[in-house]
Write a structure and sequence with these properties.
Layout lengths: L6 E4 L9 H16 L3 E6 L9 H14 L5 E5 L4 H13 L3 E4 L3 H13 L9 H4 L9 E4 L6 E6 L3 E6 L7 E3 L7 H11 L4 E5 L6 H10 L6 E5 L2 E2 L15 H6 L4 H10 L12 H7 L10 E2 L2 H14 L2 H19 L5 E2 L4 H4 L25 E2 L6 H12 L5 H8 L11 H7 L5 H13 L5 H15 L3 H13 L7 H8 L1 H21 L1
Parallel strand pairs: 1-2, 2-3, 9-10, 11-12
Antiparallel strand pairs: 4-5, 5-8, 6-7, 13-14
Helix pairs in contact: 6-7, 9-11, 12-14, 12-15, 17-18, 17-21, 18-19, 18-20, 19-20
The chain binds one RNA strand through α4, β5, β7, α6 and β12.
RNA sequence: GUCCCCAUCGUCUAGCCUGGCCUAGGACACAGCCCUUUCAAGGCUGGAGCACGAGUUCAAAUCUCGUUGGGGACGCCA
């Protein structure tokens, strides 16, 4: 029926960091536009001057860039279009669709409360609509909404929804300070931008009939609507700051990959049979509004982590290293000094995404973080081959990049920090002879590679008639400080012969010291 | 309170539109086992759900109505 090209939009207000729910709305809009070879518009609804902040605008732009959700037009800032809205208000006024309301906010608040208390709908009572005199003083402009009848909303996800008009109040379209309000600007912009599909959160469902009235009064055709189910917190209420980390930025800083976040967000509220893994390319192919469900979903961080681990394993070694590096740098900086990695860049600039010109409105699709700073190294340990093997050794057990960096710390610091429980359990006098034999075989291992090392360790175990664990665990704790790590031979290889021997000797000396003391 | 939306394992969901193939499938999480030098990863197994009540029908998770429950909206916020 609609032959005009698809145009969708994402219209956040810059009153907070880009929210997880907003990101999903953006994703669906972006997917829908891309699938239909349409246009995706970014619009900034900043008419609330009190709460809007540049910092938040920047975060929204950055986060969308990081997620790879590029827009074709915008960002359109509503505060730059005030005259446009006023001209529409003028049209409304001319046609007699609005009237002056001099009721003060305080009065209105009072009446609202009273109405609710008496069980009446808390809508504006229309007293200024009916008055014939024209009182002085500040006034707001109210829209004359139809008083009877029913307004139907055709929702692409929910079908036909009927609202009795008597429930709908005369909304304010122009504040007494001359600023237009949301319900007006949204209608004007969606019409001006020729938006064909408004895909937004279900929290806007009740606004839709009001907006339809405005479209009609203005003689405009409403777009199609699709109201998405909300994303809920653990307590099943709408996800908000109360639930902890809810911004895209927060997850980015925790070391989640945009691939994982996108996949996760797509799957909450939408499904495609039994499938769970969706790359952006998959989503582009498979996403449909019909696949969007009606029930709100709880944000389940464990599943996000599972997806993140999945994508971490999928990344190429180079790419993984590139993305990990800022976390490693941050981690080593935090652990303070004594590291083999020379730090000369910060994480934020490292993972830098297209956060340049917020005014350059051009498509920025899934850009890969660039501008990495190769760590400078002392000695020659950190060869490309070394990094490749390090990535393979650690990627299997990391939920997030941040955790992965933490787990790799021992590779770079002068002396490891022991997990007390692990030390107490494995760095004991009984282990002394095995550690000493390990030192000898590592000294002799030729070439210094995992296979010969493994042979040597096996030989020790056979001679001493012990299990590999009895040898490997003390060695592991001595070298990594922890009882959990990648395979011990990989650990030894990554550490290098000298550092391995140094670590083992330190541990041996420490155990001996304790024996002597105790 | 009023209006609107929603209702399948703890969580995300398939199935519902176009009733029988459903003894309700998958995934995350959880438990056990296997693999194993630890931790993961991987493999196998297991527990776990159609909110309730009427009705329609030979047959209902699927259709209808009601109840209950949850959520959202009720701003000179967006």
């Amino acid at each position: 029926m609609s032959s005009s090209p698809v145009r969708t939009r994402f219209a956040p207000s810059p009153t907070g960091y880009l929210h997880i729910g907003g990101a999903r709305t953006a994703l669906y809009n972006w997917l829908y536009a891309r699938q239909h070879k349409g246009t995706f518009v970014l619009r900034i609804e900043d008419t609330d001057r009190e709460r809007s902040r540049e910092e938040y605008l920047k975060d929204i732009v950055d986060s969308m860039g990081w997620l790879g959700l590029g827009w074709d037009e915008g960002p359109i800032r509503q505060t730059e279009r005030i005259e446009l809205y006023r001209s529409y208000v003028g049209r409304l006024e001319q046609a007699g669709h609005v009237y002056r309301c001099t009721c003060s906010p305080a009065e209105l608040e009072e009446r609202r409360r009273a109405a609710m208390k008496e069980g009446r709908p808390p809508k504006y009572d229309g007293r200024c609509r009916r008055r014939t005199d024209s009182p002085a003083g500040p006034y707001a402009l109210r829209f004359k909404a139809p008083e009877a009848g029913v307004t139907e909303v055709q929702d692409l996800i929910r079908g036909t929804i009927r609202f009795p008009n008597e429930e709908i109040e005369d909304l304010i379209v122009l504040r007494s300070n001359g600023m237009p309000t949301y319900n007006l600007t949204v209608v004007v912009d969606d019409a001006e931008n020729r938006i064909t599909h408004v895909i937004r959160g279900e929290d806007h469902l009740n606004n839709t009939p009001k907006q339809i009235h405005l479209y009609r009064a203005l003689g405009l055709d409403p777009p199609q609507f699709a109201h998405l189910p909300l994303i809920l917190g653990e307590d099943r209420s709408r996800l908000s700051k109360r639930h902890g980390a809810v911004s895209v930025t927060a997850y980015r800083e925790e070391g989640f990959l945009p691939e994982a976040l996108l996949n996760f967000l797509a799957r909450i509220g939408w499904s495609h049979g039994d499938e769970e893994i969706f790359t952006v390319a998959d989503l582009l192919e498979k996403f449909t509004l019909k696949g969007v469900g009606k029930t709100s979903g709880v944000f389940n961080e464990q599943k996000l982590e599972w997806l993140n681990a999945h994508y971490t394993r999928q990344l190429s070694k180079d790419e993984l290293r590139r993305r990990l590096m800022p976390f490693l740098v941050e981690r080593l900086r935090a652990s303070g000094g004594g590291s083999d990695l020379t730090i000369h860049d910060s994480p934020r600039t490292e993972v830098a995404t297209p956060s340049d010109g917020i005014s350059s409105g051009h498509s920025r699709e899934a850009e890969v973080p660039r501008g990495e700073s190769e760590p400078l190294v002392r000695g020659s340990r950190f060869t490309p081959d070394w990094w490749d093997r390090a990535m393979d050794a650690f990627r299997e057990r990391a939920g997030t990049l941040k955790v992965m960096a933490e787990q790799m710390t021992f590779l770079f610091v002068e002396s490891v920090t022991f997990d007390e429980k692990a030390r107490g359990k494995f760095l004991r006098p009984e282990a002394l002879p095995y550690l000493e034999q390990a030192v000898r075989s590592i000294e002799e291992a030729q070439p210094f590679e995992t296979a010969p090392l493994e042979e040597a360790f096996k030989a020790i175990c056979e001679r001493a008639e012990i299990k590999m664990g009895q040898l490997a665990q003390p060695v592991r704790v001595a070298l990594t400080g922890s009882s959990a790590s990648p395979g011990i031979f990989d650990v030894i290889w990554l550490l290098g012969r000298d550092r391995t021997l140094e670590g083992l000797r330190k541990a041996i000396a420490e155990i001996r010291g304790e024996v002597a003391a105790g």
